[in-house]
Model the fold of this input.
Amino acid sequence: MPKANAALAKVFPIMLVLMLAIIMVQVRSFSAMSMVMLTAPLGLVGAVPALLLFHQPFGFNAILALIGLAGILMRNTLILIGQIRTNEEHGLDPYRAVIEATVQRARPVILTALAAVLAFVPLTHSVFWGSLAYTLIGGTAVGTVLTLVFLPALYAIWFRVKPAAVAISDGVEEPTRDVLVEPGASPHDTTGRGLGRFVDAGRLNRAARAARRHSAARRRVTQTSRGFT
Done:
């Protein structure tokens, strides 16, 4: 067993460099590559309890399973990041793009993880491959769920994604406009009812325009996602 681990340690740096190069070619961004790599250890949250619960040794087979598990979770991350960028290209604002990407890709990702988990169930009865099977089952099941929660939050924090209304209020000043004064109205009525009606009308108009843009963009994204799934 020590000889097997030593042989694996020799090729591990080469494997890591090649993996980073392939991820960089696909995402073309150091930030996105860092997010992909940060999701790789999430499988430990499910793999370690599975090994402890079923009294499996953490040996060479479990290490191999963890390497494969990291690849599975990073693939899910790449799928989500790619869908977020596709949604933004179709006109969705970044906040809606993150939400829609998570909803659109949740079912394919979960079904793929479920198929992988069920495929490894027969190996749990093997003495030699048991630790590998339990590592992949626990890590894939828990890591997939954590990825669907962790990545959107990490993406929003990393790129400072905010809802459209908050982003507009933070970065753009509302233009000042004149308020029509009704004949015989007091100054209190002018600053009260008149200004209130004007502000409410402006908000309704902006909300209606944003809803129309979001509806059109969502229809385009839905048509595109149907072609992918």
Notes: The chain has two domains: 2-167, 179-216. The first helix runs from residue 2 to 27.
